[in-house]
Amino acid sequence: METIIQTYQLTKTFKDATIIKPLDFSLRKGEICALIGQNGSGKSTLFKMLAGQLRPTAGDIHLFEKTGRDVAQARRRMGFLVETPVFFPDFTASQNLEYFRIQRGVVEKKRVDEVLEIVSLAKEKRKRFKDYSMGMKQRLGIALCLLSSPDCLVLDEPINGLDAEGIREIRNLLVKLNQEKQITIFISSHILTELQLLATRFVFIKNGVIVEDVSKDSLQEKSQKQLQLTVDDTAKTAQLLEQTYVDIQFKVLPNQVIIIHNHVECSGDINRLLLDNGVSVSEFRIEARNLEEYFLELVGGHGHD
Amino acid sequence: MINYLKSEQYRLVRKKTLHITSLVCLLLIVAAATVLYYNQKADPNFPYATTRFFYSNVIGSGGLIIIVSFLYNFSLTGKDAALLKNAVSFGISRNTIFWSKLFMTLSYFLLISVLGIGLMIGLGETLMTSDSQSVKDFLTALVNILPIVFSAFFLIHSLKMLKVGEVYIFILMLLIFVFSGDLLRILFRPFTSLHEVYKYAPDTLLHENLLNFMNHTVQFGYQHWITGVLLSLIALLIGVTKFAKQPID
């Protein structure tokens, strides 16, 4: 499968601080890859280097298997939205996109209206950019990305400022673009639940280093469900579990709580086992870790973007 | 590069402030001519309603022309520079951006300058007392000013592209184009062999040019071109080299 983005030992240093440590990363055609990390982890720096806004201190970037001077040409097959979208404030949405249509050599004039329609801004196309809400500005940024019919989208916080309906629309749009037009997507967002609904691959970055790179299936496996029980006798419960399931993994927590990490599929049997042996179960719950919990566990800390 | 130029043209023609500035400049010329003309009508001994005096306002306003060139330059390198990231991320080279913006702003500036000069000559020759040499001397003096104004334009462009603040640009322009003659004279006073260097300073040359124009002795000045070309090359070299490595975000 074609590799869309490939970095070799990509490094970025600002004065004495190394923001991106030698980083090897690849993105293959058709993937929707989520880049997840805390503030200052190096996400935007990586995006900016891919976009050519920042020059790498060391390492190499290959886009569509092109490198060196050819990378600029390869960027024409990509749409970048890095941080906040910027347009001429005194231009309308149409005028702004027309400016970029001319600049990018897009021959079809109607393409401007098409992309405005795609991002649901067709009715607002005569409004000046400075009068747009944050969400509308974000949509226009996405419209610009789509203007030259790219094969790959690199989106840094594309749903920033959108309301719930807007987020859903953009998510559906991205999924549609990926499935129908095979557009590869590399995306970051602080709304991890959205990424969980959208992405097929998750890359976790911490202090400029990729600490985890997992597929959706693998992530689901890793963030597998667990059983949470509240019982009257934790010692007896532990004994029964160990006798019945040799490889059982569980933790006894305060307040008579027991967390069982495996054999979740045997939840009915476990419940029956305890009741049959006189253990009173006041709470029996199946829990799954979401992406946010997995993220916090992986990169630590509380804040993230 | 053609596409980028076209898009910048699209932007430029929709810059209302730029057209207003141009209109104000042209109206000021008309206003100056009208004031001189009516003063002459009111007082036949009024000594300033001559083409030579009228044209000397341009020859002697090198600083003002540089300020106007700053305004034109600012039209595509001011706040609009924030959009550069969109162009760079589409693979448009920094070189293309640098030269296209320079070409567009300079072309517009030259167009308005030619219109202004045409308007001045038209008004001057119709409304004022003219001597036979004034237009020829005016054009010769303008040819002398041209390289220095160009160098100022290039320097402003380079500094704007490098995101240097307006105040710093203004101070630097004052130093180079207003005070450099005096500064060089003081600086090189102890060195006999460098005594004459100040004569090549932009402000000294502009001042000389005005005096020669008023004295009917203006000639093509190669010194103006040496200084102008040298300053232009330095400004563009610094601009292109540093902009190529400039983070754009």
TrEMBL record, chain A:
A Pfam family matched in the record: ABC_tran
InterPro entries: AAA+_ATPase, ABC_transporter-like_ATP-bd, P-loop_NTPase
Entries under PROSITE patterns matching the protein: ABC_TRANSPORTER_2 (PS50893)
Highest taxon in the source lineage: Bacteria
GO molecular function: ATP binding
Segments forming domain ABC transporter: 5-232
Keyword field: ATP-binding, Nucleotide-binding, Transport
Family: Belongs to the ABC transporter superfamily.
Protein name: ABC transporter ATP-binding protein
Organismal lineage: Bacteria, Bacillati, Bacillota, Bacilli, Bacillales
TrEMBL record, chain B:
Lineage: Bacteria, Bacillati, Bacillota, Bacilli, Bacillales
Record keywords, A-Z: Membrane, Transmembrane, Transmembrane helix
Source superkingdom: Bacteria
Protein name listed in UniProt: ABC transporter permease
Keyword Kinase: no
Record bears the keyword ATP-binding: no
Transmembrane segments: 20-38, 58-76, 97-123, 138-156, 168-188, 222-244
